[in-house]
Design a protein that fits this description.
By secondary structure, the protein is of the alpha+beta class. Helix content is 48%, strand content 11%. The strands form three sheets. An eight-stranded mixed β-sheet has the order 1-10-9-2-3-6-5-4. The chain has a two-stranded antiparallel sheet with strand order 7-8. Strands 11-12 form a two-stranded parallel sheet. Strand 5 (84-89) and strand 6 (92-98) form a beta hairpin. Helix 12 packs antiparallel against helix 13, helix 14 runs antiparallel to helix 15 (332-344) and helix 17 crosses helix 18. The longest helix is centred in the last third of the chain and has 22 residues, at 283-304. Mean pLDDT is 91; it is low at 104-108. The structure holds adenosine-5'-triphosphate and magnesium ion (MG). The site of adenosine-5'-triphosphate has 12 residues, from helix 7.
Length: 419
């Protein structure tokens, strides 16, 4: 096994102690004082080397989770698939993971591998070198020692980062089979960090994409949300489609995923703008857009058969979610929000009177109105409605009353309600 490494001294790279959160430093300092090894590992050294602000700081150590708990009163042990310690400082949580080994199921501890080579539990402790090479990508395997400022590199991750290269550690096919979620992670890092994939890392994805079928739906949702809420949703979506991963997540949901309806593109782009502006985004809104073309088509059939629009949308929404969220576990709270947004749409068609006025104060008005704006491209009627509801909100209260309670005539005749 390979355990040679390269050391990049402070001064030859841009990661400094002052970039690391105080809490993470407390953890590494105390572990080292107690005689253990402790590094900042994973995403933080990678992001700092790229000049990106890290989301959080993870610590790697040779202390066992129990030993970590012994050193920190504010530590809690968590996880089954991957047991680790969480050390809490106010609102910040530092994840402290004991070095993992790479050996087979016969190692010390608890490691369990399925028939296809998929890792379902990974609690075999190992050496520092083993911990580095069991990680997914070379750029994620760097270890920064805040005491000396040295970066330890077992996988040539430092060079790969310089060349902006995303490369799986070890034999690509085995690493994807061991954990197919790494394919989604590859797409996420490539998109978020503007990296180029190494040929082996890239080439195998479309071929191995069907392996995602074996991943628990809750884990797929987590990974998907990280991809879509990281500020590059539109690029991320296109990469998923391009690498044949999208159809594994939502088979048959969109008719032409490589050329989705404008509304979907808009929803992704709006999400990205919001994320970049630091405004909150909710997956419920995004799912409302992604599922809309299908829900709309099905609801329209029922409406043509005489069902009232709100009911038709509720029923179609329920059914489409049931059918198309088998692979990715969409939380109830997201699907509920999506349904509320859809069912609001026909209600925008009533522009006048008390009921129209009341819409403005409803809890879902904002999200539903934002959705109506997305629909404005769908047809002339939706555009007119969007314009009207925009105007109603922009004017002063008196003009608003006049518009809604009708001292002046509505500019367009009412049409039959249609989603
Ligand atoms: P970010 O937190 O910015 O999303 P990250 O690289 O920190 O990115 P995490 O999911 O927090 O991602 O994982 C922390 C580290 O754990 C990774 O950098 C990688 O070294 C390792 N890791 C995470 N998931 C896997 C995996 N599926 N297989 C192997 N190693 C993994
Ligand atoms: Mg992280």
């Amino acid at each position: 096994m390979k355990d040679s490494f390269q050391e990049i001294p402070s001064g030859e790279h841009r990661v400094e102690r002052k970039h690391i959160s105080q809490s993470a430093l407390k953890v590494t300092d105390r572990l080292q004082q107690a005689g253990f090894k402790a590094y900042i590992v994973g995403g933080a050294p990678r992001d700092l080397l790229l000049g990106v602000e890290p989301k959080d700081f993870d610590v790697g150590t040779d202390a066992t989770p129990e030993q970590v708990r012994g050193l920190f009163r504010n530590a809690r042990l968590i996880g089954r698939r991957f047991r680790l310690a969480h050390v809490r400082f106010g609102r910040e949580i530092i994840e402290v993971a004991t070095f993992r080994g790479t050996g087979g199921a016969d190692g010390e501890g608890d490691r369990s591998v399925e028939d296809g080579g998929r890792l379902v539990r990974d609690n075999v402790f190992g050496s520092e070198a083993e911990d580095a090479i069991r990680r997914d990508f070379t750029i994620n395997a760097l270890m920064f020692d805040p005491a000396s400022g040295i970066i330890r590199d077992y996988t040539n991750g430092f060079d790969d980062l310089k060349r902006r290269r995303l490369r799986l550690i070890g034999e690509a096919e085995a690493r994807y089979r061991e954990d197919p979620v790494r394919m989604l992670r590859a797409v996420r890092f490539k998109t978020k960090l503007d990296l180029e994939m190494d040929p082996d890392t890239e080439r195998l994805i479309p071929e191995l994409a069907p392996l995602l079928a074996d991943i628990p739906p809750a884990r797929l949702l987590d990974e998907l949300l990280k991809l879509l809420l990281g500020g590059r949703a539109w690029d991320g979506y296109n990469a998923l489609v391009g690498y044949d991963l999208w159809e594994e997540l939502f088979p048959g949901l969109l008719e032409t995923p490589e050329n989705p309806p404008t509304l979907i593109r808009q929803a992704f782009e709006n999400t990205d703008e919001r994320v970049r502006a630091g405004r909150p985004v909710t997956p419920g809104f995004l799912f409302a857009a992604l599922f809309w073309p299908r829900v709309k088509a099905e609801a329209e059939r029922c409406i043509d058969n005489g069902q009232p629009p709100v009911e038709a949308l509720a029923a179609a929404g329920e059914e489409v979610f049931a059918r198309h969220s088998a692979r990715v576990a969409i939380h109830r709270r997201f699907s509920t929000m999506a349904k509320e947004i859809w069912m609001f749409q026909p209600r925008f068609e009533r522009r006048r009177g008390k009921r129209a006025m009341r819409l403005l104060g409803e809890r879902r008005f904002r999200a539903a109105y934002d959705f109506l704006l997305l629909r404005a491209d769908e047809n002339e009627q939706a555009r007119e409605l969007a314009d009207w509801w925009t105007r109603v909100q922009e004017v002063d209260p008196e003009t608003r009353s006049a518009l809604i309670f009708g001292q002046q005539k509505s500019r367009t005749p009412r049409k039959r309600p249609h989603p």
